[in-house]
Amino acid sequence: MSDTPNRTLAAFGAVLVYASVIAFTDNYVRVIARDAGLWQFHATRTAMAFALLALVAVPMGLKLWPKRPWAVFARSAIHGTAMLIYFGALAFLPVAQVAAGLFTAPLFVLFFQRYLYGQPIRGVQILAVLIGFAGVVLVLGPEALSGATLAALLPVISGALYAMGNIATQRWCAGETAETVVAGFFGMLGVYGLIGMAALWAFPLAVPEGAEGFLQRGPVWPTGEFLFWTFVQAAGSLVGVGMFVKAYQMAEVSRVSVFEYVILPASALWGFLLWGETLSWFAWVGMALIALAGMIIARPQRDQVPIASRQ
After folding, report:
1. What angle do CA 271, 157, 72 make, to 5 degrees?
2. CA separation (Å) from 277 to 114, 173, 246, 271?
């Protein structure tokens, strides 16, 4: 939606909340993966998220029914598929390579907006995205660029779909409430989870022990630890994804997509606080480049019309 107020700083604040919450909860996926499968995780998390939404919908006056169901459905399908491909690729590709592929999304955002919507690309936007992506590669390590095979294209496909979903958030779902878009996203992942559970129940696969069997594991009796951390995931994701949606409704997609790089240093910080994981100096240089990219992309353009009066 072209006349959406470009509240850049507010959008960055929303992304910062999103990154802080999601980086914390995602650090515990390794715990969840020991006891259950990806598909059961998605289905259970969706059930918990919907239960939480039902509890707070009336007291908080939430509006969950979409104004344009087709738009919310399409956006949910695109984003949900991106996440499925992302997690699926983790089964046979290095985490660094998969994550680097997903973070090609800002490049695709500029491409799609230029050739699908005719929006001009400024040189400073391209520079910021390239600097940010270089920072991602340094954070993840040189192995992120290895293994250029057909399978390695899957994370890039995920990044392209992720970019399309981000554009859809603003252009298709600009008039929707954040809670409506969040509910659609969780609902789609829940449907995918049920389909995966049913398929693996009917056609079970050999499942490695522990977290290595996350993708292949069908429905199992849930442990208390799995239920607890999945609930934390559901509650955290409702807050985090809600902030994510609001950010894309407040500012230009090309800007917000670069802000998302902040999830990498947030993940690194939580990894250090929770598990004692440390980063190399290459990673710290990379995070500095990521911050530089954010500052470049957020810098107001000379031809940008002031919007303070429209708030």
Report:
1. 85
2. 40, 39, 31, 5
46: how many CB neighbours lie within 10 A of its CB? 23
The pLDDT, as a whole number, for residue 180 is 92
Tell me the per-residue pLDDT of 193-208, one tens digit each, with 9 for 90 and over.
999 999 999 999 999 9
Token pair for 35? 């006891």
Q: CA nearest 187: which of 51, 31, 68, 19?
A: 51
Q: Is 276 exposed, middle or buried (0-12, 13-18, 19+ CB in 10 A)?
A: exposed
> Is residue 194 exposed (0-12), middle (13-18) or buried (19+ Cβ within 10 Å)?
middle
- pLDDT at position 6, please? 59
Mean pLDDT of the chain: 82
C-alpha pair distances (Å), 210 with each of 27, 97, 213, 216, 276: 16, 22, 6, 11, 21
Burial of 158 (0-12, 13-18, 19+ CB in 10 A): buried
Scored b (16 or more CB within 10 A) or e, 4-38 reads bebbbeebbbbbbbbbbbbbbbbbbbeebbebbbb
Residue 2 confidence class, pLDDT cut points 50, 70, 90: very low
> The pTM is what?
0.80
Q: Is 301 exposed, middle or buried (0-12, 13-18, 19+ CB in 10 A)?
A: exposed
